[in-house]
Amino acid sequence: MKRLRLTLLSFVPAILLSGFAAAESPTQAEIEQMLHDYLMAHPEVIQQSLDRYEQQQAAARQAAEQERLMALTDQLEASDNDPVIGNPNGSVTLVEFYDYNCGYCKRADSTVQALIDANPDLRVVYKEFPILAETSLTAAQASLALHSLYPAQFEDFHRNLLGRRSLPSHDAVWDAIDDMDGVDVDAVREESQADWIQQTLAENRQLARALGISGTPTFVVGGQLLKGAYPQATIQAAIDDAS
């Protein structure tokens, strides 16, 4: 409130104080009365002041967010356990926090694929963030285990689950893996309970908390945080800024 009052005072023209002699400083009460009289005569100044204050606050929030993102870049982009698609050696990294039961993630999947096609130098990191259902956790664990044991099969599995309307049961996840050629579903099921998978999911949750992420999908690219299923053009603009 003090900062807002100072902002309001900045709008009061110096001419209001010109009636006081150099050696005669106005009292606090006189200043407040002048401010009151000025605002009553020019009420639009209040909105201008509020707009400026909100702009300052938004800029401060954005700066703090970018600072957090920069501090967490390695954790976001360099975990050996996260699935990576696109160009694994790409100079621009797009990170996605997602949940296999998230309808918006399903919609965003085609956007991610289009971005990969349009950007040969794009590296996409998937952060498992199961928050919507118990089957989301099963799918996340299975996904990480499959990627570890059969990395070449990950994308097909990923597309399969995101292409479904929902995951009504845990068996739906394992049946999807069982249907894949050359994959030992029992080995994947066993690996899905490994300590490293639980640790990876815990680290993803910690990252999400640190960045204020509470929903999916959320994208991180070039110091920008995009919460929601943004249009391709919006994410592309962030990629261009990061290039």
Note down, in words, how this protein is organized:
This protein is an alpha+beta fold. It has two domains: 64 residues, no CATH class; 169 residues, Glutaredoxin (3-Layer(aba) Sandwich), CATH 3.40.30. 58% of the residues lie in helices and 10% in strands. A five-stranded mixed beta sheet has the order 1-3-2-4-5, sandwiched between helices. Helix 5 links the parallel strand 2 and strand 3. Helix 6 packs parallel to helix 8.
Task: For this entry, give a set of tags.
2 domains, 243 residues, 58% helix, 11 helices, Glutaredoxin, alpha+beta
Widest sheet: strand ordering: 1-3-2-4-5
Rg, alpha carbons: 26 Å
Largest sheet composition: 5 strands, mixed
CATH superfamily of the largest domain: Glutaredoxin
User: Could you please say which CATH topology of the largest domain applies here?
Assistant: Glutaredoxin
Q: What is the CATH domain class of the largest domain? A: Alpha Beta
What is the residue-mean pLDDT, rounded to a whole number? Answer: 89
Strand content: 5-15%
CATH architecture of the largest domain: 3-Layer(aba) Sandwich
- The termini sit apart by 40 Å
What is the count of β-strands? 5
Shape field: elongated
| Secondary-structure content class | alpha+beta
Low-confidence stretches: none
Number of H- or I-type helical stretches:
11
- Please trace the helix and strand order, writing H or E for each element: HHHHEEHEHHHHHEEH
Total discrete domains: 2
Q: Which percent bin holds the helix content? A: 55-70%
Per-chain topology:
Layout: H1 2-9, H2 28-41, H3 44-71, H4 73-77, E1 84-86, E2 92-98, H5 103-118, E3 122-128, H6 134-149, H7 154-162, H8 170-178, H9 185-191, H10 195-211, E4 218-221, E5 224-227, H11 232-242
Parallel strand pairs: 2-3
Antiparallel strand pairs: 1-3, 2-4, 4-5
Helix pairs in contact: 6-7, 6-8, 6-9
